[in-house]
Amino acid sequence: MSDAALLEPAIAAPARHGRMLRQVAGRVASGLVVLWAAVTLGFVSLQLAPGDIVSLLIGEQPRTPAVEAAIRAEWGLGDPVAVQYLRYLWRVLHGDFGRSYILQTDVSGLIASQIWPTAKLTAAALGVAIVFAVLSAVTTAGRSWARRVAGSVELVLASTPSFWLGIVLLFVFSFTLKLLPVAGDRTLSALVLPALSLGLALGAVVGQVLREGLERALEEPFALTVRSWGTTGLVLRVRHGLRHAALPAVTLTGWLVGHLLSGAVITEQVFGRPGLGRVTVEAVLGQDLPVVLAVAILSAAVFVVTSTAVDILSLLLDPRLRRDRS
Amino acid sequence: MITRRTLAGLALALAFPHGSPHAWAQTAQPRAGGKLVWAVETEPTTLNPQLNGQDKTKLYLRNVYESLLARTADGGYVPWLATSHQVSGDGTAYTFTLRDDVTFSDGRRLDADAVVLNFTRLKDPAYSGGISVGPVARLAQARALDAHTVEFKLDRLYAPFLDFAASLEILSPGAYGSPQLKSGGPDIAGTGPFILVRYARGQEIRFVRNPAYRWVPATAGHQGPAYLEEVTYRFLPESSVRTGALTSGQVDVIEGVSGNDAGLFKGSTQFSYATALNTGTPYSLFWNTTYGPTQEPAVRRALNAAIDVDAVLKAVYRGQRTRAWGITSPIDPQFYDRSIEGSIAFDPQRANRLLDEAGWAARDAAGFRTKDGKRLSVEVVQAQATVRDQRDVLLQALQAQARQNAGIDLTIAYVDTGTYADRRASGRFGAIANSNTPTDAIDIENHYLPLDRGGALNYSRAAAPELLAWLQEAAGTLDPKARFDLYARLQRFAITDQAYALPLYEPEDQVAASTAVHGIGFRPFKQLPESAHDIWIEPRT
Asked: A189, B241: Cβ pair inside 8 Å?
């Protein structure tokens, strides 16, 4: 072995490192562009939305020029739209999303106070979904009778409105059995029913995809090889099959996280939980534009982060992707 | 199957036992102490009572914020923060003498300057927006005559002013320097029997007893501080969830009970159930007199005759709502003229005859009436934000009636707040359905003054000169009999003659509670649920 051969990895490693950094930087930059586009599109569409903001803020009160002038001055509505846009952009860069038209509170503070309950709910629901999907797929894939039963259960869960599921869960576990509290966000137990009602439908969809992938993996030649080593069925499914089957399910889950956020709206309403979902619905109905915009930007940020996370997770799951990229 | 078992196990493992069924000791005497949990439907937009227009939030805001005078059931006034009041002979000057022992919960004293500040700040549109153009606009000058005497001077006599001045919630002067002024919150101190300590949006609002409180009005059930140590209102927007929370003992009281659930509590030995009709304008369909087919009085009269309101209410609410007939609530002791009842007869033959005579005789393929090739179509615009109390079902029932009985196409548009504001401003809508609760004829003025003269809720856009003349005359006299007669004339003209509106039902408040909870009541006259001052609970054993 020559010196040059020994040196090669030492040279190659920083080069690979640099490539990775460039990739990450590219990702962050494109994420920022997406966010800027979200801010701008949000701002533009709200300008085009029906209803003049001054009439909106006056509501069902008498209207006089003095009142109009006071409102324009207070909310800076007298300035040209371009000025309002630039001012908004500047403030957003500093983390200031303005003040709610309807609630009269600071939007950043409002979002900050509501994001934690929603994050808890969606994380718990995601946990429920993953546990349900994996258990259902691993235990029933390729077993004709069990898969039929599990498939039907999943179909029912996936097509049940989460509103109805929530009411039924409440009726059984809270009102009748009195095992779990009805509402609020004060104890861990209050999270169980909302997480189930939100997570089961997602778990059902992911479970179907996962099972199909698992069945395909189990038919591959490598499965036969692993079996010939004398490995048990469960180990084959969990250690070898699942990894192959997970890729489409992970992609789907990433995409469905967005749906968790929108499903949280209904779950929060039924269970009387605080959270972004309820705040958003009320803001949209009341055309509380600063809040709607802030939520839109936040959702865009969540999507950027999750899609990046899914890409990275795919790299970890599938060595072929890693090789192809490098 | 494994999946199901695993899930059930997971749920059980995470579950904490949440209290055993309550057993209640029987005591007849009110008892101080205890904590109460009350599930409510409506979350506040703002906690500043002067800026908040949601009647459903008053039941908890009233724990903190009080006003100069309280009302008696017959509409009279009794002392509260003010010990007495005088109105000058010409009705343009009001003098209030304040109690000298009242303090706000932030330690400041209630004095004449504090009251003057509350009224003058409300006139500033930068603080109160459109509210500054309401009754407070009649106030020309507010001044402190001495430390405990306030005088309000009006430009000219305005009879509803006393109702407004007596009921304005008085905030601590310290509130006006707080960043929470417009949003409200714990910083905005009041004088009430409870102190607001915590508001968690989407979850609950909590109050603790104000130990220094000793200025209840004569209308209250007991003197001195409140019985309860603490009261928490939890926001549960779904009515079936509120009902379940009460029946399973997770809350003590609920507000807003659907017609379907009322049967669970009525006549029950475990729960009490009480309702009170709202004041003010009933939930009514206001026909637009300046746009579309409802410009023709004959079409409006036909619409009023074509709909069997009694049958619709019975079907939708199982008989749990009260039919309304007039321009104000049947429980208004001052200005409700009962002779209007029964004046809108369900008479499909008359409806069809009126329409035939008005030229809407032809029918199109779908069976709707037409004139000059245009369908007899009226679009009801309903703001999505105020759909509650199964009003969507009610509107659908009305739609079916109009079609079956008279071939009228009543379409319903649920719109967002922006579109609603647009439609209202442009006048391009067939009808708007709404109700509101102000008393002392302020609601009548809102609905029947011309749009540009303070008729902020003049949905029918009625501009007949008689209306303005009657309303000005009624507001310009302190003689209750003369006022009653004028509003009665206006009611006949608006409902029977011109058919500006079809009154449907009078909204109400419903409260259901565990029988261990005592002292829940409704305010005299204004009829909204009263504060928690008189509420006490039997000890749990």
From this structure: no
